[in-house]
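sanity check this chain:
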Amino acid sequence: MRKMQLALLALGAIVLAGSVTVTPAAAHDYPWCAQGGEYDYPGECAYSTYEQCQASVSGRLLFCGPNPLVAYGQVQQPQPHPRRKIRHSVPY
């Protein structure tokens, strides 16, 4: 019984450690996008250099184009959270 509890505790610790280290994918705005084919506009914008993009699209019937968010300075700013309305109780 004691071994089972230790095994479950160890398993729980491993799962917790794994979930803590997992972070969501960061949204980077790289300057080059693979465009065409299966990608909607602006495409797969995951390339820091034109050469990286060219190597990725080679043989895939895609082409490289500039990321419009980077090229035209339209990187989205984080939206502020709306303020919560606080209700004050009014004594009668």
Q: What stands out?
A: Confidence is low (pLDDT under 50) at residues 22-27. The beta strands are 32-36, 39-47, 63-66. The radius of gyration is 24 Å. The longest strand covers residues 39-47.
